[in-house]
Amino acid sequence: MPRYQQIKTELQSKPRKWLITGVAGFIGSNLLERLLQLDQVVTGLDNFATGPEQNLDQVRRLVSKEQWGRFKFIEGDIRNPDSCQLACQGCELVLHQAALGSVPLSLSEPVRCHETNVTGFLHLLIAARNAQVQRMVYASSCAVYGDDSATAKTEEHLGNPLSPYAASKRMNELYAQAFAPAFSLDLIGLRYFNVFGPRQDPDGAYAAVIPKWISALLHQDPVQINGDGETSRDFCFIGNIVQANLLAALAPKAAGQNLIYNIGLGQQTTLNELFVSLNRLVHHQDRSVPPAQKPIYQDFRPGDIRHSLADITKARQGLGYEPEHDMGTGLEITLNWYRHFLTDTP
Fold first, then answer.
1. In a domain, 9, yes or no
2. Measured on CA atoms in the order 104, 105, 106, 108, is the torsion positive or negative?
3. What is the pTM of this model?
């Protein structure tokens, strides 16, 4: 039996008490949905800075009334130590997703990025220590690889950070490295590559590329590409990220260690290839939407990594991680969600 299926079976027979920070966000709400479907007891913390309350409403509609009754929401900010202490009380496992997760936003508001991503992380570490949680899994990022020239990124080789966001995530890893042995904390960091899927915000100046392009194609608006389109990314569907978090949370215990894993698909896609795939998929699903014209190329975006590809060997071996959704399947599920849940789309 695959490790992920084994864990899901174990959880349904023996529910655990979880905390999800950033629970109203894209990744946090997907984690909440899966945990409640597995009959878990979940506390969620969020200040609605980047994740809308509607995400929680959608989860409520997707689970049973009994499952929703196992969820307790705390409106609070990880920059407030009291909020972190309150949220951690009684929790066994913490999935830390709260962050300002945008390179451009970190360039325009570096202090806010630091306060949320670094100071907030430190508050949560202290709260987790005080509450004696069994394990905390925290979201790091492929941005920590910075200017590393290797095509496939491995956990042991880092470059120089190219943005305040990248620096903040690297500081999370360093704080975890210090706290784990000093306070016998059990910590696992997951370096997410480019995550996409349902409930990812398509609007605003800092929207991620896949939801932004889907929205543009559905509205028959021009698609804009930063640079020449040959920038490449490892696009990973949200279902794979959820799997990795549950695997990490319930991996064999190793108190006092800080382990870090790449979490991606392990495949590389250029922005030009992504445009072709999305254009074809949108037209295939809805013939009333004509194929888009050629994209509009503009300047490269400051702080962006040129190429990003995850070597997921360590996660496969250490966690039993095996992506369930490939790029094509993930894009199809994602497009279906945007067509059915965004009221302003056709």
1. yes
2. positive
3. 0.94
